Amino acid sequence: MVTLNDARRVIDAAEKKAQEIGQPMNIAVADAGGNLVAHIRMDEAWIGSIDISIKKAFTARAFDITTEDLATQSQPGGQFFGIHASNDGRIMIFAGGVPLKLDGKVIGAVGVSGGSGVQDHAVAMAGAEAF
């Protein structure tokens, strides 16, 4: 189970990384069911990235894979091409979603949006590592 305290710890670590790289971000944490536990929008982070960060967390939990890895497999000709149209448009196929694991089992996810894919993934990884 991902508790609110767990989500706060993940968000704090991710926010620290975002500050280090100088990129305001939206950071979301989802539980085992892909439901939102907590979200923050850093000052001056894009409003349009609120929804994207939440959907990245959902995607990472729904498929137990980073959204960066899913993106590579969902390009034309890939085994998951078209997956972004599933789940009523909740699937994000670019970097920034990372599963949260406990004893090797996925029990939630973090989603980050507001920078480049590389930045989003780095911030999400910082959050996941704090879990």
From TrEMBL:
It comes from the Bacteria. Gene3D superfamilies: Haem-degrading domain (3.30.450.150). SUPFAM superfamilies: GlcG-like. InterPro entries: GlcG_carb_metab_protein, PduO/GlcC-like, PduO/GlcC-like_sf. Pfam families: HbpS-like. PANTHER family: PROTEIN GLCG, SLR1406 PROTEIN. This is PduO protein. It comes from Ktedonospora formicarum.
